[in-house]
Amino acid sequence: MDALIFAHATILTMNSDRVIIEDGAILVTDDRIGAIGKTAELVEANPQEQQIDLSGHIVLPGLIDAHVHTAQCMLRGVSEGKRLADFSNWLFGRIFPLQGSYTEEDARASASLCILEMIKSGTTGFVECLLAERYGFDGIAQLCVDSGIRAALGKVVMDVSPETRDRLGWHHGMWQTRESSIEGTIAAHDAWDGRGDGRLQVWFGCRSAEPANDPSLFDEVSALARDRGMGITIHLAELAHDNQYARAQGYRSHVEFAHGHGLLGPRTVLAHCTIADEQDIALLAKTGTSVAHNPGNNAAAAWGPAPIADMLDAGVNVAIGCDGAPSNANMDVLRDLRIACHTARMRTGTRLALGPEAALEMATINGARALGIGADAGSLEVGKKADFISINTDAAHLQPVWNPVATAVFAAQGGDVDTVVINGQVIMRKREVLTMNEDEILEDVRGRFRDVASRAGVDGLTPEWPIV
Ligand SMILES: [Zn+2]
Fold it and tell me: Tens digit of pLDDT for each residue in 12-42?
């Protein structure tokens, strides 16, 4: 039996009493937490076990990022330069042509970069929302297995007719038929779900409920998901036009449209929900649907903050998502927790709106529930999976530590994460990722990102200012 003690840390257990242990220790036995408590007592009871000294570190459950586009990490920064005000122009004129020109190697390079950044920022599990056929599902699933991270990979399903695709100017490289996208997702589920010692899940990654998609797709997907016990993720209730679309379909709102087509429930993660109103929020709570809040994207894209405080008050399971790098730049959950608090306070006009405690719950307990692993992760308790991270507070921007919860949420950033343990395996130690080759990944991305733009024929990606 492999056992290891992580000792002398301040531990935010996130257990039901939210106990914080000073000079605490965790005994990891195989993939689970064998014991947790005061270092002195735990070491005395297990004198033979090897120790890792985490003096001066804050230890907390691994962070869950509930809304990620792995293919977009190689597009970090492309929304600036020649900025596009209109969302459709941004999506169809810039992002889709770039992603639609990816080879499988490009997509894997971007996903490698994304997973590396997530691990280095303390993310131990994530939901990929839209994994397109052209990215090569097997390669990316293998990457997740090899890196040691947990993932729910939402494989794209869509039903967009060729006429609609051409009318919208939708890049052909991003298009799949209904039949092939559903069959491909089911085949991927059969081949990969549960792999990596249970770390990998395969979900339906529905393209948005919008005029491009035939609504009957959602009935078929939700029935299949129920039959097979699969998760569903979809962008929903993002902007005002979503409600206009739902009304044209005979529903009061986009959230009610989703409910009408069977999409809501405890195995569904809705990204954004920026425009959800009181009735929508009550429905999300009643159905046990999870929401991935994307505060960094909402701010950068000028969408405004989502009604997160209202959702939490109503009992909605709200998780956090960094979304795509073109809008939000970084896959840094700690940074987005801070933006979530700040923007919730701006929306409500009170600093009581969202505290660091509720924010940290979003990234841990709530995130684990969204990922469907609430019984096994999200808090540090005996018998749960050993998924945790440490933040090294030996830094000018983190001292002094009056309140470790506030330090983690308001002062720390991804780059302060020192140690990452997932499923009992040390994935990062002293900021060195042990399961991935960082130099090779960065070199690969640097060598290919401009080729994608020239292949796609997209310009306007350079700075506004002259380059000499
Ligand atoms: Zn998104």
Answer: 999 999 999 999 999 999 999 999 999 999 9
pTM equals: 0.97
The rounded Å distance from CA 403 to ligand 1 centre is: 33
Domains and CATH numbers, the chain: 3-61+382-433 (2.30.40.10), 63-370 (3.20.20.140)
In this structure, how many other beta carbons lie within 10 angstroms of the beta carbon of residue 169?
12
- Report the SS3 class of residue 270: strand
Percent of the chain with pLDDT over 90: 86
Let me know: does 466 contact 112? Beta carbons within 8 Å. no
Q: Give 130 Cα–ligand 1 centroid separation in angstroms.
A: 8
Cis peptide before 400 (omega within 30 of 0): yes
Instruction: Classify residue 402 by its DSSP letter.
Output: S
Q: How far is the CA of 208 from the centre of ligand 1 (A)?
A: 10
What distance in angstroms lies between residue 455's CA and the mean position of ligand 1's atoms? 24
- Taking the centre of ligand 1 as the mean of its atom positions, its distance from the CA of residue 69, in whole angstroms, is 6
Nearest alpha-carbon partner for 115 in 90, 151, 154, 139: 151
Q: Are strands 417-422 and 51-53 parallel, antiparallel or unpaired?
A: unpaired
